[in-house]
Amino acid sequence: KIKVKAYLPITQYKGPTQQQRIVSLSLRSATRDLTHLPNVAPSEFEEILIKHHTNPQAWFMGQYANFVLRFNESALLKINKIESKFNMDYGTIAGIHVRRTDKYIEVPPYKLEEYMKWIDLWYNAEEYNVQTINSKLNLKTTKQNIK
């Protein structure tokens, strides 16, 4: 048997002219020492993407992730069933995920006030746009006591 490795690790990426395929990223922290990261938007769409988006690579990667992580019919039925049990007539619900236990290598911890500053900014814009008075905050965290 011949073993073929289709993807190189990101640490072997040399620059935009490199032709080998690179898809695997172990951790974002492994990319910190790279001077540049590979572009992920196909060159065929570059011209039109640049006209319509300030960061075509980010847009394309989002589209790609959305496609890869799309739900199948069975999952959608389950999600819709669960979603139907929620009272969504309450108003606007903002959600934040305060991560303290699994991202300490990649991202420094932020104080809860920093998160709330952005939630306030978002709610102010939301109230301006749709005049929503009712609002809720959904806070998820891996720690019991956060500050």
From TrEMBL:
Query: Which Pfam families does the entry link to?
Result: FUT8_N_cat
Instruction: Name the coiled-coil region(s).
Output: none
UniProt keywords (A-Z) are: Glycosyltransferase, Transferase
Provide the GO biological process annotations.
protein N-linked glycosylation
Q: Which residues form the GT23 domain?
A: 1-147
Q: Which InterPro entries match?
A: Fut8_N_cat, GT23_dom
Chain positions covered by the region annotation Important for donor substrate binding: 99-100
UniProt cross-references to PROSITE patterns, sorted A to Z: GT23
Instruction: Output one GO MF annotation.
Output: alpha-(1->6)-fucosyltransferase activity
- What family name appears in the similarity comment? Belongs to the glycosyltransferase 23 family.
Spell out the protein name for this chain.
GT23 domain-containing protein
Q: What is the lineage of its organism?
A: Eukaryota, Metazoa, Ecdysozoa, Nematoda, Chromadorea
